[in-house]
């Protein structure tokens, strides 16, 4: 019996400068050491997995990854388990302003990958500066992950940077909200570099706009940057300006 799958309607018009891709790809080579390291990770196969069964990771004590389900035995299983919650129908429609669902979406359902070019930190900084100078829309998404090391006073940080401004998919059109109905999760399937996946954070009604918080799990706000853009999400919890991820 064939499994039901959720299908994202991606037959909308893309800008002429945008190359449509199904999943994230490596940025063009700039011959830098950072790029060579990133390329090595991109071409590597992830071998170390926890020993939990395919029903999902166990609790923090039993799972070697602390119960972090994005490291479950097969990352594809995580996405497939969530897509099977919906039928084989187009669920979203898109225009240049937002992404809106055509049908109700259950909490936890996988919606799409935030696909784009995988960047080095130096290239991300360069593109962000260029976007500001040109007044261009900034689509660069910076995901920071922290894992415990042997030194209890220091966490190891892994940065994944995705830019769908030149090459991307429908994920680039999902807007920010301070009270989102979706969230992003890093999912590793067979590569050390994770896929940035968008999931439903709650049950979503038909015709609702899909949004996630551009700051990810880092919802706290210390200081408003002088060049921050105003947030127009109108949520009761709205911070008043868009979050800015820092690249260290």
Automatic annotation (TrEMBL):
The listed locations are: Chromosome
User: Is Cell wall biogenesis/degradation there in the keyword field?
Assistant: no
Note the PROSITE patterns from the entry. SET
Q: What does the record list as GO biological process?
A: methylation
Domain of life where this protein originates: Eukaryota
> Major location, coarse class?
nucleus
The keyword Methyltransferase is annotated on this UniProt entry: yes
GO molecular function terms attached to this record:
metal ion binding; N-methyltransferase activity; protein methyltransferase activity; S-adenosylmethionine-dependent methyltransferase activity
Q: Which UniProt keywords apply?
A: Chromosome, Metal-binding, Methyltransferase, S-adenosyl-L-methionine, Transferase, Zinc
Q: A Gene Ontology CC term for this entry? A: chromosome
SET domain: residues covered: 76-215
- PANTHER family named among the record's database cross-references: HISTONE-LYSINE N-METHYLTRANSFERASE SET-23 (PTHR46223:SF3), HISTONE-LYSINE N-METHYLTRANSFERASE SUV39H (PTHR46223)
Q: What is this protein called?
A: Histone-lysine N-methyltransferase SETMAR isoform X3
Origin species, per record, is Drosophila pseudoobscura pseudoobscura (Fruit fly)
Please name the gene that encodes this protein. LOC4802104
């Amino acid at each position: 019996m064939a499994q039901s799958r959720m299908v994202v309607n991606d037959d909308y018009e893309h800008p002429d400068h945008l190359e449509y891709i199904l999943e994230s790809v490596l940025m063009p080579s700039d011959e830098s050491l950072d790029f060579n390291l990133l390329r090595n990770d991109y071409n590597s196969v992830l071998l170390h997995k926890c020993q939990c069964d395919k029903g999902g990771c166990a609790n923090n004590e039993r799972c070697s990854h602390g119960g972090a389900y994005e490291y479950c035995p097969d990352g594809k299983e995580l996405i497939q388990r969530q897509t099977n919650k919906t039928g084989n129908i187009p669920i979203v429609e898109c225009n240049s302003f937002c992404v809106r669902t055509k049908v109700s979406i259950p909490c936890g359902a996988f919606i799409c990958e935030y696909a784009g070019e995988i960047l080095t930190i130096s290239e991300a900084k360069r593109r962000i500066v260029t976007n500001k100078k040109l007044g261009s829309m900034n689509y660069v998404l910076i995901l920071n992950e922290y894992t415990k090391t042997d030194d209890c006073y220091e966490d190891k940080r892994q940065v994944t940077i995705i830019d769908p401004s030149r090459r991307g998919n429908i994920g680039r059109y999902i807007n920010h909200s301070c009270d989102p109905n979706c969230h992003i999760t890093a999912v590793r399937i067979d590569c050390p570099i994770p896929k940035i996946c968008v999931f439903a954070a709650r049950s979503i009604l038909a015709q609702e706009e899909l949004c996630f918080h551009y700051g990810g799990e880092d919802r706290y706000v210390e200081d408003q940057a002088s060049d921050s853009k105003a947030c127009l999400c109108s949520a009761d919890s709205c911070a008043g300006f868009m979050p800015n991820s820092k690249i260290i």
